[in-house]
Amino acid sequence: MKMISTYQAVFDQIMMRKPRTGKKMIETYMQLILEFYDQNRSLATIEILDILYRYQKDPLLRERLQDIYQTYGQTNFLTSRLKPADTALIKRRYIEEVTKFTRGYLHAVAA
Predict the structure, then answer these.
(1) What span, in angstroms and rounded, lies between the C-alpha atoms of 75 and 94?
(2) pLDDT score for 2
(3) N or C: which end of the chain has fewer CB within 10 A?
(4) pLDDT value at residue 6
(5) CA-CA distance, 84 to 102, in Å (whole number)?
(6) Rounded Cα gap, residues 79 and 82, in angstroms
(7) φ and ψ at 40, to 5 degrees?
């Protein structure tokens, strides 16, 4: 299974099934995820580290987070092997890239 690739497949299905409201549904979905990450920081950290470990074979995720995989991949994204500053950087970069991906997807669909 692939994380960013999964987002793309899900977004494609939403847009096919709900062409009029799909864009708004995707925007709302991402807004809810970002709110969850902001309000539940510890859970967000664990979820993001787990995603990075479990979906490390996703070519889109690896491409977008090449710097993170190159620097921290050998840690298997275990909190016991990461400093708090490392964890904060990883989390920030993941959120940035998922947000960029979603914006790019929505922009491409609108074009």
Answers:
(1) 16
(2) 57
(3) C
(4) 86
(5) 27
(6) 5
(7) -130, 65
Buried b (16+ CB within 10 A) or exposed e, 52-72: beebbebebbbebbeebbeeb
> DSSP strand E in 32-95: where?
none
Return per-residue pLDDT of the chain as tens, 111 residues. 457 788 889 999 999 999 999 999 999 999 999 999 999 999 999 999 999 999 999 988 999 999 999 999 999 999 999 999 999 999 999 999 999 999 999 998 887
Q: In one letter, which amino acid is 92?
A: R
Pick from 22, 21, 4: which is nearest to 13 by CA? 22
Alpha-carbon distances, residue 41 vs 6, 37, 84 (angstroms): 23, 6, 12
Closest CA to 99 of 43, 29, 42, 50: 29
3-class state of residue 1 by DSSP: coil
